[in-house]
From TrEMBL:
<dbReference type="GO" id="GO:0009228">
    <property type="term" value="P:thiamine biosynthetic process"/>
</dbReference>
<feature type="binding site">
    <location>
        <position position="42"/>
    </location>
    <ligand>
        <name>Mg(2+) 3</name>
    </ligand>
</feature>
<dbReference type="GO" id="GO:0009229">
    <property type="term" value="P:thiamine diphosphate biosynthetic process"/>
</dbReference>
<feature type="binding site">
    <location>
        <position position="57"/>
    </location>
    <ligand>
        <name>Mg(2+) 1</name>
    </ligand>
</feature>
<comment type="function">
    <text>Catalyzes the ATP-dependent phosphorylation of thiamine-monophosphate (TMP) to form thiamine-pyrophosphate (TPP), the active form of vitamin B1.</text>
</comment>
<feature type="binding site">
    <location>
        <position position="161"/>
    </location>
    <ligand>
        <name>ATP</name>
    </ligand>
</feature>
<dbReference type="InterPro" id="IPR006283">
    <property type="entry name" value="ThiL-like"/>
</dbReference>
<dbReference type="InterPro" id="IPR036676">
    <property type="entry name" value="PurM-like_C_sf"/>
</dbReference>
<keyword id="KW-0460">Magnesium</keyword>
<feature type="binding site">
    <location>
        <position position="343"/>
    </location>
    <ligand>
        <name>substrate</name>
    </ligand>
</feature>
<protein>
    <recommendedName>
        <fullName>Thiamine-monophosphate kinase</fullName>
        <ecNumber>2.7.4.16</ecNumber>
    </recommendedName>
</protein>
<dbReference type="InterPro" id="IPR036921">
    <property type="entry name" value="PurM-like_N_sf"/>
</dbReference>
<feature type="binding site">
    <location>
        <position position="42"/>
    </location>
    <ligand>
        <name>Mg(2+) 4</name>
    </ligand>
</feature>
<feature type="binding site">
    <location>
        <position position="56"/>
    </location>
    <ligand>
        <name>Mg(2+) 4</name>
    </ligand>
</feature>
<feature type="binding site">
    <location>
        <position position="58"/>
    </location>
    <ligand>
        <name>Mg(2+) 2</name>
    </ligand>
</feature>
<feature type="binding site">
    <location>
        <position position="117"/>
    </location>
    <ligand>
        <name>ATP</name>
    </ligand>
</feature>
<keyword id="KW-0784">Thiamine biosynthesis</keyword>
Length: 357
């Protein structure tokens, strides 16, 4: 359905490992003063002076985390960087360097890896991140990408999952559910394409959703925004698995409960209309969809006035005492226990291991 520009086919073996590394990384000039030595030695050398260092890794496996039938390689490279940067931003820190390790089978020509690296390069450039190393090896099946991201923060600025207090407000950035619905559209079109390779899908109405799935943008802007507003979150996490499981992580790590208000969950109109088309509940999608790469955090009620006018930030609930549990308050004012995927009225009851009152 999506074709990468792979008319040229240069076998990986033609360049050899070192030739390939040189070829893929030739555009990667380090820009940050904290990068002392980037690619080209046995290891990179970084200097963060007195700042705390943030480290995070993600591994993406073909067939498990991505499907190249609808994921162009350039987008995959971009998204792999975003997934990691998002974890750094979720610590209220700044992402600074990444290392990129890849394993590719000989199904992938050099040109395919060039596409992948063009996405990595674009993301690194736009997010002001240096690529400082990696590893390159072969795989017997498919493509694997592992990225490690480093970041920095002042000790006192770092926000953990564990600091939320009862009565803190629960805040989310952006809107939710679009990436998941983008994936549904892509899966549907893949089936249509399989049945009829000449079909020309009209994906225009779904542009926003597909972009959120294929080209997510990590929230680099939020840490500086909060600093400017004079707000330090009490806890924070990024939304990779769906709102509901991230709320549960915050609650468990902070030993608090939460009330989430259905009517407050921010949804793009495109999500609402495509959920109608697929006949699924948009709240379920926001709660369980995942891959939004927005940030979820808690703030003291005293800080409400500082954030209330900001269009990037929505207050969606508040924290409670731990014994009160974690609940979704529906539009009909029903109180349903939150579970890791959706809420219990939608799921197998056995899966609902959360405490009930
Ligand atoms: P070593 O044998 O010490 O592992 P390599 O030959 O694998 O060294 O790597 C040489 C240099 O190229 C190192 O700086 C390494 O970090 C970098 N590098 C290797 N593979 C990649 C890659 N896929 N992306 C970015 N840098 C890489
Ligand atoms: Mg190596």
């Amino acid at each position: 359905m999506f074709q990468d520009s792979q008319d040229m086919r240069t076998n990986l073996s033609e360049l050899g490992e070192f030739g390939l590394i040189d070829h893929l990384t030739k555009g990667f000039e380090p820009k940050l003063s904290s990068t002392v030595k980037a690619i080209g030695d046995d290891a990179a050398v970084l200097n963060f002076e007195n700042k705390h260092t943030i480290v995070t890794t993600d591994l993406l496996v073909e067939g498990v985390h991505f499907d190249l039938a609808y994921m162009p390689l350039k987008h995959l490279g971009y998204k792999a960087v975003m997934v990691n940067a998002s974890d750094v931003y979720a610590m209220n820190a700044k992402a600074t360097q990444i290392t990129v390790s890849i394993a590719a089978s000989n199904r992938f020509p050099v040109e395919a890896l060039e596409e992948l690296y063009s996405g990595i390069e674009l993301a690194a450039k736009l997010y002001n991140i240096d690529v400082v190393g990696g590893d390159t090896t072969s795989s017997t099946s498919g493509l694997l990408i592992s990225i490690t991201a480093l970041g920095i923060a002042e000790k006192e600025d770092i926000v953990y999952r564990s600091g939320a207090k009862p009565n803190d407000l629960l805040v989310v950035t952006g809107d939710l559910g679009a990436a998941y619905m983008g994936l549904q559209i892509l899966e549907r079109e893949k089936e249509v394409f399989k049945a009829n390779p000449n079909a020309q899908p009209d994906l225009d109405p779904y542009t926003y959703l597909i972009e959120r799935q294929l080209k997510p943008e990590a929230r680099k802007d939020i840490a500086p925004l909060l600093k400017e507003l004079g707000v330090k979150p009490t806890s924070m996490i990024d939304i990779s698995d769906g709102l509901s499981s991230e709320i549960i992580h915050l609650c468990k790590n902070s030993q608090v409960g939460a009330n989430l208000y259905e009517e407050k969950i921010p949804l793009d109109p495109a999500v609402i209309s495509v959920c109608e088309e697929f006949d699924i509940d948009s709240t379920t999608i926001a709660l369980s969809g995942g891959e939004d790469y927005e940030l979820l955090f808690t703030i003291s009620q005293d800080d409400f006035d500082k954030i209330k006018a900001n269009p990037n930030l929505s207050v969606i609930g508040h924290m409670t005492e731990e014994k009160e549990g974690m609940h979704l308050i529906t539009r009909a004012n029903q109180k349903l226990p939150l579970i890791a995927r959706g809420w219990n009225s939608m799921e197998d009851k056995n899966e609902n291991s959360e405490k009930k009152e």
